[in-house]
């Protein structure tokens, strides 16, 4: 009986230890990691977002604004559509792993606050065809900000999570910006 108990304890401990191990690397990508924790799969992603309002190949277009927007220091009411490349590194010529598509709107009257309604869709490795949806306020002038991830498709079905983002590079004249994303997503096993 005592031996059986020890066996059970060992079996449970080993199962638990196995569950905490990283996933066997099937066809993983360099910019994402997956770890199983009990009933959840935690995926961490690192990539760069290139937003180019002006220049030769703009990635955004302003689609609407309010009657007072031109007189607002924060361009309150300006709505912009984006289709921005996501790359593995900060260099715009590094490998493209997906695109961020959606809208941001100036939602702060006193200070710059962008409401982000954006789908991040991936095209690389096992994440090809998967996406997550971000819906959050972006205090874009703060060096580091956090935004909420509210859902997803493919490998990100039933996703919840957050993105911690940092401005990597900003061209004050064009408004072109490169932002580093550290994303944590929980899905179910
Ligand atoms: C706001 O400014 C832009 C660019 O200067 C101009 O094209 C537009 O007509 C202005 N809109 C309003 C509502 O004044
Ligand atoms: C914008 O401000 C200018 C001067 O500050 C004013 O003459 C103009 O009427 C304002 N425009 C609107 C649309 O409020
Ligand atoms: C991603 O999936 C699409 C549709 O299945 C396919 O056409 C494309 O070649 C894939 N891209 C990569 C990089 O695997
Ligand atoms: C993102 O993660 C990297 C590697 O862990 C870290 O060096 C960097 O500081 C993180 N960035 C933010 C904005 O947290």
Features:
mainly beta, 8-stranded antiparallel barrel, binds 2-acetamido-2-deoxy-beta-D-glucopyranose, Dirigent, Allene_oxi_cyc_Dirigent
Find the CATH superfamily: Allene oxide cyclase-like
Total DSSP helices: 1
Content-based structural category: mainly beta
Strand line-up in the sheet with most strands: 2-4-5-6-7-8-9-10
Helix-strand pattern? HEEEEEEEEEE
Terminal-residue CA separation: 34 Å
List how many beta strands DSSP finds.
10
Oligomer kind:
single chain
Mean pLDDT: 89
Question: Would you summarize the structure shown here?
Answer:
The chain has one helix at residues 2-20; strands at residues 32-37, 40-51, 60-64, 79-87, 96-106, 114-122, 131-138, 144-153, 160-170, 177-188. With 189 residues, the protein is mainly beta. The model is unreliable at 6-24 (pLDDT under 50).
Question: What does the secondary structure layout of this molecule look like, with pairings?
Answer:
Elements: H1 2-20, E1 32-37, E2 40-51, E3 60-64, E4 79-87, E5 96-106, E6 114-122, E7 131-138, E8 144-153, E9 160-170, E10 177-188
Antiparallel strand pairs: 1-2, 2-4, 2-10, 3-4, 4-5, 5-6, 6-7, 7-8, 8-9, 9-10
The chain binds 2-acetamido-2-deoxy-beta-D-glucopyranose (4 copies).
Please, could you describe this protein's structure?
With 189 residues, the chain is mainly beta. The chain has one domain (26-188): Allene oxide cyclase-like (AOC barrel-like), CATH 2.40.480.10. It is built from 1 helix and 10 strands. The protein has an 8-stranded antiparallel barrel. A hairpin with a 2-residue loop joins strand 1 (32-37) and strand 2. It is globular. Residues 6-24 have low confidence and may be disordered. One 2-acetamido-2-deoxy-beta-D-glucopyranose is lined by residues 46, 144, 164, 166, 182.
């Amino acid at each position: 009986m005592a031996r059986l108990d020890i066996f059970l304890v060992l079996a449970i401990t080993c199962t638990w230890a196995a569950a905490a191990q990283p996933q066997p690397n099937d066809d993983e990508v360099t910019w994402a990691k997956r770890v199983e924790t009990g009933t959840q799969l935690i995926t961490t992603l690192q990539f760069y977002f290139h937003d180019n309002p002006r220049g030769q190949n703009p990635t955004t277009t302003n689609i609407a604004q309010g009657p007072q927007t031109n007189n607002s220091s924060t361009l309150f009411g300006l709505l912009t559509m984006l289709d921005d490349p996501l790359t593995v590194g900060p260099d715009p010529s590094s490998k493209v792993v997906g695109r961020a598509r959606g809208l941001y709107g100036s939602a702060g009257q006193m200070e710059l606050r962008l409401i982000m309604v954006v789908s991040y869709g991936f095209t690389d490795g096992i994440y090809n065809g998967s996406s997550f949806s971000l819906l959050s306020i972006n205090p874009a002038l703060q060096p580091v900000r956090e935004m909420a991830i509210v859902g997803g498709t493919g490998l990100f079905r039933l996703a919840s999570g957050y993105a911690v983002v940092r401005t990597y590079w900003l061209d004050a004249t064009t408004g072109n910006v490169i932002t580093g994303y550290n994303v944590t997503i929980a899905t179910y096993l």
